[in-house]
Amino acid sequence: MLDSIQALLDAFPEGIVRLRSGVVVSANAMARHYLSQVEPGRPCPEFLSLPRSGPMGAGTFAAGPAVYTYSCAVSREEQILLFRPAPQTALTDRQLEGVLYQLRTLLGEVLAEVGPATAAPGTPVSADAFSKSFHRLFRLVGNLEFMQQAAGAEGVLFRPVIMDLDGLCRHVVQQAYPLLKEVGVELEYEPAQTGLLIPGDPELLQRLLLGLISNAARAAGEGRVTLTLRRQGERALAAVSDNGPLPDQRQIAALFQQGGNEELPLPGQGAGLGLPIARHIVALHKGSLLVEWGQSAPSVVLSLPTGPLDGRVSVHTPTLQRDGGLDPVLTELSDLLPPYLFGMEGLD
Q1: What is the pLDDT of residue 58?
Q2: CA of 277: how far to CAs of 123, 143, 149, 256, 274, in Å?
Q3: With CB atoms 3.0 to 4.6 Å apart as the test, which of 123, 209, 245, 329 could cross-link to 116 if both were Cys?
């Protein structure tokens, strides 16, 4: 009976791995073809060793130069993983339609805001509303540019240094906390230790964390978003969770583009580029990204290697830098924040 089940699994075109207590129980032929580390009886590879509190999840992981997408389920004491090589990063037709839809909407808003200034001299113009629309437009174009670079021959500019991931998390939360509080979202940071050195690109990881926090804040509504950081073996684990409602199956499928008929996003909901950008940044860092769900809102778990560290490079604790003259925090959260925040001195 067991031989017939194994023969059936070996016929699958995807890799299938069963894990129990961190050890590989079985792996089909395709899983062993992709990853030599998944032999039965051997420990689970570090890049797959992610905490899974929910019964289901989907994500990506990098093994050497290769990147894979995977889904997982928990059955009693076992974890079952199904994975395949990830497609090349590129804009899908739906994402391109979403970008164009958002661009048309934003350009219409900008025209409506600037129009009164050109049509009627002396008519007051809302500088705050215009600034908000400009930040949203800047973010959308920046995301589109990122996807274009990711699909190009040279790729996204990647400049890793030895950096303090805990320091970056603290800076991001410190800057985003007062802004999100204005829309009723409490942002919390729970570090397991002070200081956690990893090889990474501070600018890209800052963008990644802000994007994950923005998505969680949108889902939470007037609720709570929590960023946690801890070390597990040779990996740094950062998790972003919220106390929002459990999404429906269509929304869960859209998280990792498991379906193809999703509706276009509404204004303020983004263009569907956030998670593809997050996956690409994680892949550049040879990390893993898991969105897990169960009886509560999805939680995003980011796993990054903590080494090797080059002793010749000085430690860099990142600070938030401006991007194109705009505050990256305001830019990333621009869909969520009220217009008046974009006109307040000291927040730009």
Answers
A1: 82
A2: 41, 8, 11, 12, 5
A3: 123
